Amino acid sequence: MTHTLPDLEGLRLPGSKRSSKRELILNVFLRQEGHLSADDLVELIRREDQRIGRATVYRALQWMVEAGIARKVDFGEGRFRFEHSYRHPRHFHLLCKSCNRSSEFLSSDIEALIEEIAAARSFSARQSVLQIYGTCAECRTGRPGAADSGTTDLLFARDALRIAIATERSGLEFYARAAKAAKDPRGRAVFQRLADEERTHLGQLEARYQKLLARDPQLESRPTFLFFKGAANGLFAAGAEQIGRGVSDQQALMIGVRCERASHRFFKRYGGRFEDSEGKQVFLEFADEDRAHLELLIRECRLLAKREARTRRRRSRGRRATV
Ligand SMILES: [Zn+2]
Ligand SMILES: [Zn+2]
Q: CA 62, 67, 70, 71: dihedral to nearest 10 degrees?
């Protein structure tokens, strides 16, 4: 897997000279996926340049941790391991005690719970570590498990896209139903327009997903990285159901506002927390799209209320005239 290098100028610590040795160490480190001990890295560096000593590698690692390029992880082995954080979203670990392999995952529900607990104890959380120790499927059954986890950045992008696609699909269903049920011609046109937009975006997201698969032919079969229980697609699905039961145009718009607002918050809040990565981009772009929909719906809601008030006035004037 190749990585584009981060902006090294931006990463340089004030007062630190970036030697070509350090650059080599950085490059080798960033090419690795997984969790290296300092000695693993020394070995890899020696393969490239015999003259680089252990102390230099250690110092470079320390510098990378301070510069936020590397994260230190403790798997309870009596020594630290290091993983790069460049385009590598924060995550939790599953650790097999038989084969010592680790795999990574993230769960919005666990994170929400941690935040809730910290807030309840007015604790300002800086970092949370969750490690699940046990036996992996391969060690347990002897059968080779799902392909090794691959690049977390790609897995994260894949899962973010899956969530965005699911949300887009239920959004499309919601607006298509709302357009069919609308009585007011302008309201119908608005829902129709939103349904068309969702359809276009859905096509774009699916194309992006295909492009991602082209970068790793096994990507589809790799284990889930991002676990979500209460993702935003559930909101639109519930909204579509409500519309199916029969609502007024005003109510339909209000349901749309509620779904888009919750969806916008979900993607914005979640995307905002991640390190720069493709998955983060997917979430933030999606949040922007929902925001545009939200604003449109709020505008239409107000206009519809005005139109209805005018109609009511006209009707009551008409009634008075005929009396
Ligand atoms: Zn194992
Ligand atoms: Zn990790």
A: 90
Q: Would you tell me the crossing angle of helices 20-31 and 54-66 to the nearest 10 degrees?
A: 70
Q: Are 304 and 187 in contact (CB under 8 A)?
A: yes
Q: Which residues in the chain come in under a pLDDT of 70?
A: 1-19, 145-150, 230-233, 320-323
* CA 116 – ligand 2 centroid, Å: 24
pLDDT tens profile 52-111: 999 999 999 999 999 888 999 998 888 999 998 877 777 899 999 999 888 889 888 888
| Protein residues placing their CB within 5 Å of the ion ligand 1 | 96, 98-99, 136, 139
- Distance (angstroms) between ligand 2 centre and the Cα of 133 equals 14
| CA triple 273-94-139, angle to 5 deg | 155
- CA 142 – ligand 1 centroid, Å: 9
- Look up residue 217 and give its two tokens: 């032919």
8-state DSSP, 13: P
pLDDT score at 232: 64
Using the mean position of ligand 2's atoms as its centre, give its distance from the Cα of residue 27 in Å: 18
Q: Which pLDDT score, from 0 to 100, does residue 4 have?
A: 43
Q: Give, as one character, the DSSP assignment of residue 131.
A: E
Cα of 135 to ligand 1 centre, how many Å? 5
Q: What predicted TM-score, i.e. pTM, was given to this entire model?
A: 0.78
Strand order in the sheet with 70-74: 36-37, 80-84, 70-74
